[in-house]
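Backbone-to-sequence.
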């Protein structure tokens, strides 16, 4: 059993239901009970952004339902779950493609800087020789 988000709404206008569902069912498929709603388009300080039936959520948690990461954060904010320390050190590391692009850019910059320095040094040597 999972307590998770089921997406609704139209393209570019998401709206989610917080539901208790069998983990084998599709994201927007069959669910057992609707526990609340989540509207990410509303401001973060709005009371209408996340609405939950906390008694029903607690009942499902007592029955062994596991909340997904996003729902767990909402439950922590509501005070139902205790805050858990999260650590994702790889979050700020760029992906492979971005790292390759950065290396190529650095090589091009180094190659462009090297020839530009050589004529300047030769010109400076000629001026001192005269």
């Amino acid at each position: 059993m999972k307590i998770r988000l089921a997406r609704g709404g139209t393209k570019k206008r998401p709206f989610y239901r917080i539901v208790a569902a069998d983990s084998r069912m599709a994201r927007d498929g069959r669910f057992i009970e609707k526990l609340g709603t989540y509207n990410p388009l509303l401001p973060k300080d709005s009371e209408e952004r996340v609405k939950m039936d906390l008694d029903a959520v607690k009942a499902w948690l007592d029955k062994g339902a596991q909340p997904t990461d996003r729902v767990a954060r909402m439950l922590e904010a509501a005070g139902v779950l205790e805050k858990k320390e999260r650590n994702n050190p790889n979050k700020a590391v760029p992906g492979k493609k971005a790292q390759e692009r950065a290396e190529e850019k650095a090589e091009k910059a180094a190659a462009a800087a090297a020839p530009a320095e050589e004529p300047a040094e030769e010109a400076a040597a000629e001026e001192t020789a005269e």
